[in-house]
Amino acid sequence: MELKQGYLQLHPLNTSNQDMISAIQKMGCSLGFEAFITQSSLSRQGIPSATICCPTLVIASEDDAIRSMKEAEELVEAIPYASLRIIRDSGHMIPLEQPRELARTIVEWIPAT
């Protein structure tokens, strides 16, 4: 299975990074077509996020072509005790594109909760 849309998941600076593209393709193959389609078409509408009552960290990227900043902001507004952190120079695949920044963001947030 070739995942051409993997390119859409990456920040524009990474769209020709063959290692990242290969990793996304391998994840898609290991996940399987049915699960990939299910995940890709998930609707986040109507999820009762306000039922989450613990500190919550929402991490987003301004350059995510799959999930918008507006969606991240809506989550933060709907979840009590939620915080928003933005990872720069990344698309949707933050763990692949900015793993150190992601880890730093989480580690810094944990003591603040």
TrEMBL record:
Q: Which InterPro entries match?
A: AB_hydrolase_fold
Named from the GO MF annotations, one term is: hydrolase activity
Keyword annotations = Hydrolase
Read off the Gene3D superfamilies from this record.
alpha/beta hydrolase
State the protein's name: Alpha/beta hydrolase
This protein's species is Scandinavium hiltneri
Q: What is the lineage of its organism?
A: Bacteria, Pseudomonadati, Pseudomonadota, Gammaproteobacteria, Enterobacterales
